Amino acid sequence: MPDFSTYFLLDTGTAKRYAVEALGFFAPEEAVDCVEIGDGNINYVFRLCARGGRSLILKQADRLLRSSGRPLDMGRSRIEAAILRLEGELAPGLVPEVYRYDERMSLTAMEDVSDYHNLRRELAANRVYPHLAEALSGFLADTLLPTTDLVLDAEEKKRRVQFFTNPELCKITEDLVLTEPYYNYKDRNILFPGTEEFVEERLYRNEALHAAVAELRLGFMNNAQALLHGDLHTGSIFANETGVKILDPEFAFYGPMGYDIGNVIGNLFFSRVNKAFTMSTETAAIAALERTIEDLWELTGKKLAAKYDALVTLPLYRVAGFRDSYLAGIMADAAGYAGTELIRRTVGDSKVAEVTAVTAPALRLPMERALVELGIALILGRRDFGTGGELTALCRRVLAQEE
Ligand code: ADP
Ligand code: MG
């Protein structure tokens, strides 16, 4: 029998043994159920539950992606456990608690947060919790600003940049989010039949857009501003009536904070646009979602500014002219990366359910055009958004052209 001192991929039987023998989480005589619940396409996630109710999550990385079988850097697992611990300190209660990270097994034992539900699915079911904007803006401001050079000791920050260097996962983003949708250079875009000409004209031959995306791409690669979650879409956010839990930060690295903020905003817009085409009579849910987007934008800006005032001490950085342009730069990035997220999950190869669930061309074609046009307008106009209301008004204008 393996003793967990060298790596092997767990199954439900060995996961149970690990929880008993290596972690001592369950007693040997306890009856424990174990299911593999991973719905992502990258790692293996086991949920172990004792009859008495105590439960545990084991998340294990494998060298080969479970979806494509392609190899992927195992260091991502260490990075994920480390950022979960940091986020747990910066934003208590908003991420699962890490009980133990096992380097040899590339395995994180963590708190089971199964009483929270995948936000993408909650939004699809018109459950838009009123606390979302408050909770998510708090998570963003609390986890991002304190990890910057404005707050951290310069040497400590550089050590963290080194530790969280995550080249293989960043390359996925650099390719699939920030290159491929604008050229199809590796022929990996997946276009819905009938969108080819539109995509060719609006994305592949749009020089003004390419210039803006080039800037966002290089910003993603070079602006080691803050420690990012790196994959903050609504499938990484879990929610219920009482709050949120943020999962799955294996794409973490030091990058521009607007990338995380923009990812959340962009993914909320998928739900908003999908509802316009598939359930336009759900006016209460649509209004709640719009308010969430608006409040999230405004509260994130306000909370970042408050964190800034509370934590930044160097007199040079405290000059209002610098502070304001720094914060404005973050929000401009956020609008831009919300746009790149909308575009890549519409024409790229990792689509979202809000897009793929709409199969009738009479709905899918105008919906895709609206998503792409909204993305383009967010990218090109990224420096012009003041209030959250301007974002949702833009979305309504784009929808009015296509509905
Ligand atoms: P991957 O890296 O493969 O995308 P995720 O971290 O997203 O894996 O986990 C896949 C799924 O497993 C999640 O969507 C969620 O349903 C479940 N899951 C992961 N971590 C937890 C946790 N701590 N508590 C409850 N469920 C979890
Ligand atoms: Mg995932």
Each distinct ligand: adenosine-5'-diphosphate, magnesium ion
Mean pLDDT: 96
CATH fold descriptor of the largest domain? Aminoglycoside 3'-phosphotransferase, Chain: A, domain 2
CATH homolog superfamily of the largest domain: Aminoglycoside phosphotransferase (APH), C-terminal lobe
β-strand percent reads 5-15%
How is the secondary structure organized here?
Layout: H1 12-22, E1 32-36, E2 44-50, E3 55-60, H2 75-90, E4 98-102, E5 107-110, E6 117-118, H3 119-124, H4 132-144, H5 154-163, H6 167-176, H7 180-183, H8 196-204, H9 207-222, E7 226-228, E8 237-239, E9 244-246, E10 253-255, H10 258-278, H11 283-311, H12 315-318, H13 320-347, H14 353-356, H15 361-380, H16 388-402
Antiparallel strand pairs: 1-2, 2-3, 3-5, 4-5, 6-8, 7-10, 8-9
Helix pairs in contact: 4-11, 10-11, 10-13, 10-15, 11-16, 13-15, 15-16
Bound molecules: adenosine-5'-diphosphate (ADP) and magnesium ion (MG).
The site of magnesium ion (MG) has 3 residues, from loops.
What can you tell me about this protein's structure?
By secondary structure, this protein is α+β, with helices and mostly antiparallel strands. It is built from 16 helices and 10 strands. Helix 10 (258-278) packs across helix 13, helix 11 runs antiparallel to helix 16 and helix 15 runs antiparallel to helix 16 (388-402). The model has no long low-confidence stretch (mean pLDDT 96). The structure holds adenosine-5'-diphosphate (ADP) and magnesium ion.
